[in-house]
Each structure stands twice: as C-alpha cells, then as structure tokens.
Amino acid sequence: MKILITGAGGFLGQFLARKLLEDSSNQLVLTDVIDCPIPKGSKHPDNAKVIKGDIFQEIDNLVTKDLDAVYIFHGIMSSGSEANFDLGMKVNVDGTKLMLEKLRHTTPGIRVIYASSQAVYGRPFPDVITEDVFPTPEGSYGAEKLICEVLINDYTRRGFIDGLSTRFPTISVRPGKPTQAASSFISGIIREPMAEKECVVPVKDRSFPSWVCSPRTLINNLLHALTLPSDALPSHKRSVNMPGLLATVQDMMDALAKVGGEDKLQYIKEEDDAELGKILYTWAYKFDNKLALSLGFKPDTSFEQAVREYVDWMKEQEQLGA
C-alpha cells in the first residue's frame, strides 16, 4: 500500500511509520512543517519518502493518484488552539478540508483515518460516554475536531472517501519534549522524573482523572483501522471512541514509583494552573468502548504497563543511538 501520513514529524506519526515500514509492501509519504525523519530502526527505510512543508503549499505533491490510504495527524494542539483561534482554525479545519477536497478529486473512495479527540465532548457529562452522547465541545480544539468529523461523515456518505474518525484518549507515555497540549503533564509526570527532570502537574488534586491510552496500543488500533471493512459502520456515522483506561494523578504517581523507584516522585511539583484548569476540567474521563471493542480494537491492560513500555522504548532508543 502507498500511505500518506500528515503531521508525521510528531511522535505518533513516527511510531506509526516505523510500524508500517515493517512490511516491505508498504510505501510511505511522510510530511510535516517540522523536521520529519524516517524513524530510526525502521526495517525498510528506503520505502519512505519525506516531504517537508506546509500542506497548503505541498498539497499537489502529497496527494497523488497512486495513494491507497491517508492518516491525517497534523494539527495545533489544545492549548495552542485556545490561545490562537485563527491558527487553530486554519491548520485543524482549513488544512483538513483542503486535504479532503484534494483526495475527493484525485483518489475517490480512498481510506482516510482522521485523528480526532475525546475533547469533542463537553459538560455536563453523563455517567458513561458512548458514541450516542451528543458532542458539545467546550474548547476550540474540540470544536475544530468535531467540524472535521462532520466533514469526514459527509464525504464518506457521498462516496468521496472511505473515512473513519478515531477519537483518541490522552496518549501516555509520550516520548520527546512537552507539547502545547493541556494534557502534556499526563506524559510528563512519567517522562520527566524518569529523566530526573521536574514535571509540574497543573492540578493540585491527585484524584483528577484522565482517560488514557499507551502509544503502542493506539498504534496497533490505528493499523487495525486501516483494515476495517467499509460497511462496518453506517456511511454517515464514522466516529469511534478509541479504547482507553481511567487513571488518576495518584495512579500515575504510583506507577512511576513502582517502575522507576520512589525517588522519582521528588521531581513532581503540584500547583493549580487556572488557565489550564479551564481546559482540563472540561474533558470527559469515563467511556464505554463497546463499539470500538465490537469492531476489533483493543484496550490497554494497565497504566503501569504503559510506563513499562515507555521504559523499554527508551532503552531501545539508546541502543539505536537516537
């Protein structure tokens, strides 16, 4: 298959690209506005091509008639979208619509997997959230994701694409540096102390809950999404809440202590951040993933396992000299 990944310079695009490059029959086009390397340790690195640049400028080079599938990962994160409305709308909405329009006219019926978010939901929350709960986002990021979901639905209903919107839980543990996401601390609470660096948790509430998923589990689910039959969902309802698990700040600290050692807890600083709190407390944290599970998507086993996977990944990166 020939597969395009937008936003491929981010950790998720890099993880996915490396996994896809395990198969010699896959050809990848990786694009981002930032440096977008072919992941180290890839089994078939020669099967990937990198196009660095803005989607608005490179769209004709990115979308070609021989494409078989597209993963749309590019975007401005939650805090960034809230801080800069115009930028968030341009990148998250206009950039996605441009991509869909180009695909519609160049490769009609192509499989498109869109990275959406649980941020499409807003208060008041029911006891448990399913896809039947009407999304009412309380932030610009969630609103932009929902707009794109509606586009994915209608473009699929019309036969322009074969789309699927995958609503991500918060991904933890993310490697790399902190991001503009309001949820960045949910990875930082593990990643920074493991590197003997300070992490500021912006809520002084250890019972604060988050709906999370490990990178490995999400990548496996994204690969599964590539093979999902077109008729697995109605043509006008293409959004699925990806499997996750509930973890509180205390759960995360317990996992850090168990895997990394009690001494790592000294690097965690807890203080209320009013601006981030306005975003964080609008996010849902308890989901019923029956739909996703019925479609063959898989959940994590525990947050501790996610931490252990991160430690294993770091050791592997050291061996690769990354």
From TrEMBL:
<dbReference type="Pfam" id="PF01370">
    <property type="entry name" value="Epimerase"/>
</dbReference>
<dbReference type="InterPro" id="IPR050005">
    <property type="entry name" value="DenD"/>
</dbReference>
<dbReference type="GO" id="GO:0016491">
    <property type="term" value="F:oxidoreductase activity"/>
</dbReference>
<dbReference type="InterPro" id="IPR001509">
    <property type="entry name" value="Epimerase_deHydtase"/>
</dbReference>
<dbReference type="InterPro" id="IPR036291">
    <property type="entry name" value="NAD(P)-bd_dom_sf"/>
</dbReference>
<protein>
    <recommendedName>
        <fullName>NAD-dependent epimerase/dehydratase domain-containing protein</fullName>
    </recommendedName>
</protein>
<keyword id="KW-0119">Carbohydrate metabolism</keyword>
<feature type="domain" description="NAD-dependent epimerase/dehydratase">
    <location>
        <begin position="3"/>
        <end position="200"/>
    </location>
</feature>
<keyword id="KW-0521">NADP</keyword>
